[in-house]
């Protein structure tokens, strides 16, 4: 893999909900000049648009369940087919199951663009629960906060636009527990798969985002400054 900024590299960020995949994907994508493709953001956009797909996704997400493989596979393939992903991408939130990994491998093989690395971000579950249960977001402008680590200036009010902050339905503690169970049951087997393929890079996800990024950059040649 090339170490030059903007060079082609195809990465997947893997890990339980709340480990910081989105934050790291943003930082990595900015460093490489590649798109950060967030499955969660794609699905939330569909929900906001109120499309037939969005309504199906909303019911599933609010139950804390994973979106069916075939459905999410269609969404991801459409996104990866866009021109901005030709040189590479940072994929966050997909694959989450072995079946989804098979879909991704077939799609990339058909384009002659194999996956380069799978970055596994690891954080203890008690830390994950505290992170997610305290997260708040603005439905108007999309700004995010945390009741302890990054609170707004006025409790419950967005600093940026003044709208009321909300807890995402999938950040309620009962739903978090279901999301972690789903991760253990369905996503964790991917670790063995990608380790056997020599693509897995385990990373300690605790600490400041810059510290975590430094660990990733030290382990993935294509990210070294």
Shape from CA axes?
globular
Number of beta-strand segments: 8
- The proportion of residues in beta strands is 15-25%
CATH class label of the largest domain:
Alpha Beta
Number of separate helices: 9
Q: Uncertain segments of ≥5 residues (pLDDT<50)?
A: 1-7
Mean model confidence by pLDDT: 88
CATH architectural label of the largest domain: 3-Layer(aba) Sandwich
How much is the radius of gyration in Å? 17 Å
* CATH topology name of the largest domain: Rossmann fold
Give a concise summary.
The protein has 225 residues and is of the alpha/beta class. It has helices at residues 21-32, 39-49, 52-62, 69-80, 98-110, 125-133, 173-187, 189-196, 209-219, and strands spanning 9-14, 36-38, 88-92, 117-122, 135-138, 144-146, 165-166, 200-204.
Molecular structure report:
Helices cover 45% and strands 15% of the residues. The protein has 225 residues and is of the alpha/beta class. It has two domains: 1-123 and 188-218, P-loop containing nucleotide triphosphate hydrolases (Rossmann fold); 125-186, no CATH class. The strands form two sheets. The protein has a five-stranded parallel sheet, sandwiched between helices. Strand 5 and strand 6 form a beta hairpin. Helix 6 crosses helix 7. The longest helix is centred in the last third of the chain and has 15 residues, at 173-187. The radius of gyration is 17 Å and the shape is globular. The two termini are 13 Å apart.
């Amino acid at each position: 893999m090339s170490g030059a900024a903007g060079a082609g590299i195809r990465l997947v960020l893997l890990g339980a909900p709340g480990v910081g995949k989105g934050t790291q994907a943003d930082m990595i994508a900015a460093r490489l000049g590649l798109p950060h493709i967030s499955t969660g953001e794609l699905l939330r956009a569909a929900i906001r648009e109120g499309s037939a797909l969005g309504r199906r996704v909303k019911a599933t997400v609010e139950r804390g369940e994973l979106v069916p493989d075939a459905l999410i596979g269609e969404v991801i393939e459409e996104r990866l087919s866009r021109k901005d992903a030709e040189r590479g991408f940072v994929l966050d939130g997909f694959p989450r199951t072995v079946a989804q990994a098979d879909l991704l491998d077939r799609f990339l093989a058909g384009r002659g663009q194999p996956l380069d690395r799978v970055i596994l971000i690891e954080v203890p579950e008690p830390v994950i629960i505290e992170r997610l249960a305290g997260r708040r977001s603005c439905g108007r402008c999309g700004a995010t906060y945390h009741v302890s680590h990054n609170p707004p200036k006025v409790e419950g009010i967005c600093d940026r636009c003044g709208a009321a902050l909300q807890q995402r339905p999938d950040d309620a503690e009962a739903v978090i527990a279901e999301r972690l169970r789903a991760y253990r049951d369905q996503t964790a087997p991917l670790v063995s798969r990608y380790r056997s393929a020599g693509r897995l890079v385990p990373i300690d996800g605790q600490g400041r985002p810059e510290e975590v990024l430094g660990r990733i950059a030290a382990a993935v040649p294509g990210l070294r400054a």
